[in-house]
Specification:
mainly alpha, about 375 residues, 3-stranded antiparallel β-sheet
Length: about 375
């Protein structure tokens, strides 16, 4: 028996909505703190832009929640073509952003980062492909086709170049094919292939990397090899350490207000949180992000079909991975990749993709077959 629109909205996850809005508003406050007193027009505009994109993102989230995710799964081929076309357009007409390093933006009246939009679209398209081949995951041909599926947009993103987002795509692929039924035997063979090809693959990938990308990896492994590249990592650790248990107070962090910490509104916003709210504030932020991921995973368990489950796993995968890497690079445990902290870091399209992912998860949750 079909559910009515009213009964569907009764299953809306209001806790997930509240956490998403709360973290987004907290992000605006932290961006304000990180850009307070700035004279650079780009930094001055960060707060109003984040609010604008936040309002737009909420609208997109509710639209996707109201839209049956199975309708999107039914047109996945067209969504895939659109995604590839959008990423190809970046190589032809793209502009640079974030200091002029990556040619990853398109100006469509407002600047957008197509890789972030592709991150959401690929969850639907890969999820639909895997759902249709759910009973054939024991075949290597299915796994290879899924790799090609994710490989085409990943190659276009690498060409921008944006290695961090490419790794996100790879992690989402692994989580989704594992959830779809990837066999341990296939993983063992894949690990063996990687091990055997590494002597050739690693030098090839290294030679294709940009100078700044190689510098980030070298400074992560050998911090004293490039003091300039390691500067942000050291300042981040100082910021986190100076926060103590309860922090120095909102907009009172010495590393932040003294401008010692660079790119504090994006890559290193977690250091600003730690400095101003201390260990307690940092842990609270991580716990809230963890609860969001747990709510999305709960949606995966409750889904009525493989497509819904895979969509939720895909959303949870990118939320977890970006959180893990962003916080890890602030602590000096991961190389700097430029990945944003979900909901919180400055970045309009990043916030849009995050809340769009929440909207997709809500679409699955609202149509769940049972309550756990």
């Amino acid at each position: 028996m079909r559910s009515t629109p009213v009964s569907i909205w009764r299953q809306f996850d209001w806790w997930l909505l509240g956490l998403s809005i709360g973290l987004s508003l907290f992000g605006v406050l932290m961006i304000r703190s990180a850009t307070l007193g700035a004279i650079d027009p780009d930094l001055i505009s960060r707060v109003p832009n984040q609010i604008l994109y936040g309002a737009l993102s909420l609208v997109v989230m509710f639209i996707l929640a109201a839209l049956d995710y199975r309708l999107l799964g039914g047109i996945w081929q067209w969504l895939y073509i659109f995604m590839v076309g959008l990423l190809a357009a970046v190589l032809l007409f793209g502009t640079t952003g974030d200091g002029g390093i990556t040619q990853g933006w398109l100006n469509l009246g407002i600047p957008i980062q197509p890789a972030e939009i592709a991150k959401v679209l690929v969850i639907v398209t890969l999820g639909a492909f895997l759902a249709r081949n759910y009973e054939q995951m024991d075949k290597f041909s299915t796994v290879i086709k899924s790799l090609i599926h994710i490989g085409i947009p990943s190659a276009l993103i690498v060409a921008q170049p944006d290695l961090g987002m490419t790794i996100v795509f790879g992690f989402m692929w692994f989580v989704m094919v594992w959830a779809a039924g990837l066999r341990v035997k296939q993983i063992a063979i894949a690990v063996l292939v990687v091990f055997l090809t590494a002597p050739v693959a690693i030098p090839a990938v290294w030679s294709r990397m940009e100078t700044y990308q190689r510098s980030r990896f070298v400074s992560f492994l050998f911090e004293d090899s490039d003091p300039d590249a390691a500067y942000n990592i050291r300042q981040a650790r100082i910021s986190i350490g100076s926060g103590g248990l309860f922090g120095e107070g909102y907009a009172q962090g010495s590393q932040n207000t003294g401008r010692f910490l660079r790119v504090r509104h994006t890559d290193f916003i977690f250091s600003v949180i730690s400095e101003e709210f201390g260990f307690v504030g940092a842990m609270a932020t991580m716990i809230l992000l963890g609860v969001v991921i747990a709510r999305v995973l709960r949606g995966a368990r409750q889904a009525i079909d493989p497509l819904g489950s895979l969509i939720c796993y895909g959303v949870a995968a990118f939320l977890f991975f970006q959180t893990f890497v962003s916080i890890g690079m602030n602590l000096g445990l991961m190389p700097v990749t430029g990945l944003t902290l979900p909901f919180i870091s400055s970045g309009g399209t990043s916030l849009l993709s995050t809340l769009a992912g929440i909207g997709l998860a809500q679409s699955v949750i609202m149509r769940r077959g049972r309550v756990l």
